[in-house]
Design brief:
By secondary structure, the protein is mostly helical. It has helices at residues 2-25, 29-34, 40-56, 59-67.
Amino acid sequence: MKTLDNIALTLLIVGGLNWLLVGLFKFNLVAMLFGGQAAIISRIVYVLVGLSALYCIKLFANINNMAR
């Protein structure tokens, strides 16, 4: 499970940095690397980042358990 957590966290960081670049510079790194926003590989990356965000919701329970 730790491996899946690390993969999900890595994808969230990639997604967050991509949104930072979009917000500051109107530069979409994922689209540039994978052939445009509508390219199938870009869409797969976007979906994986979104699924990672949903998966990481469970980490809130871990944070609450560590605080006790």
